[in-house]
Amino acid sequence: MVVYGLALMLIAHMLLMAMPPKEITIAAGPASGTYYQHAIAYRKLLEQRGYRVKIRSEKYTETIADMVNDSDSGIDVGFVAQELHVDKLRNIASLGDIELEPVFLFAHRVSGKQRKIATFSDLRGLRIVLPPERSVTSQAAAKIFKLSNIDKTNTVIEYRELDDAIRQLKEGRTDAGIFMLGADNRQVIELATNPDLELVEVGQIDAMVKDIPFLQHAVLPAGIYDRDKNIPSADMQLLAARVSIIVKKTLPPATAYALLEAMAEVHRAGNYVSQPREFPSYLAADLPLHAVAPEFYRSGTPWIFASLPPALASIVDRYLMPLLALWLLVGLRRGVADVEGVRRFVLMTLSFLMLKWLQRHASQGKIFSEREEWMIGKIERWIAKDDKSASLRQAIAELRPDCKRQHSC
Hints:
Layout: H1 2-18, E1 23-28, H2 34-48, E2 52-57, H3 64-69, E3 77-80, E4 92-108, E5 127-130, H4 136-147, E6 156-159, H5 162-170, E7 176-180, H6 186-192, E8 197-199, H7 205-211, E9 215-220, E10 236-248, H8 253-267, H9 293-299, H10 303-307, H11 310-330, H12 337-363, H13 370-384, H14 390-406
Parallel strand pairs: 1-2, 1-3, 5-6, 5-7
Antiparallel strand pairs: 3-10, 4-7, 4-8, 4-10, 9-10
């Protein structure tokens, strides 16, 4: 009895170790900012998968990477768009990029002294308001100012919380403001359509990109904010940063796949400066991808994680799939009757689940991967030798027209 008790305790411990945490904590920016709005959208989708999601508003967005990297911070997920010191961030991985976030320059038409602003250097001598000093916007602005010979000795630079900075600009208590927000963010739209403000296009964009590696070129289409008034009046060339989702390297596969699916759902439509299905994506960068991300970007979520609840999928992935792979590779044909019965039950259950998932996959017009085609053939060869697999034969028969249509079976 003691042995059985210890065995049950060991099994229970192994199952608990395999299960992903039910709670996810996301570090986002200010509540009115783009990151926070994305986090809300993720939360809605993740809660449908059974997760509890907490969102922490962080005004110092530059520190989010350090928070995710800290094993004691309680932060699992974060948004980054700045230059990162990877040698100090050994505990984080990337799930990919979700959007371009432009650097917007707004000038007040009255308080801005009617000065023509053609480059960032023309801001010298004006009053400029920015989000907090440890924000991503202010980090980017600091590099731009350095290249433009702007500093506190020749220009009034004020740092305010995002909402205060925007209010100060609207009220004309400053000449210009710089903000990094999503192009379709509500506050950007309000600023762009405010008659007292001008959305300014500056030159030297390509030169800036060469000197500031984490920024790139983006185009804001003419009329995107107001078709009738044609705001902006022409396509605008802007600086922009790629926003990435970072996570702890130890984030369980089930949770990582759930996040990747949420990212795809929220961002696949594109926004004002990106095309549909341009994001999420992954370009070569300093941060390594999370272990499951390459598979997701190649062929989507594996059927186990797409079809089963996160906890069950994690158990199957950690313990049952290795056993299934072993049985398939070794081709066990004999054994104790009980072991063979368990093996057959597991094979039939997993095969049936996979075939049903593939049917749904095909109904959505998706193409089978080489691995999926191999698994269909493997199941078909197995049931050919099993006279008690009527349900699997029916599932194969229902799937076959889709295979033939794709010329893959």
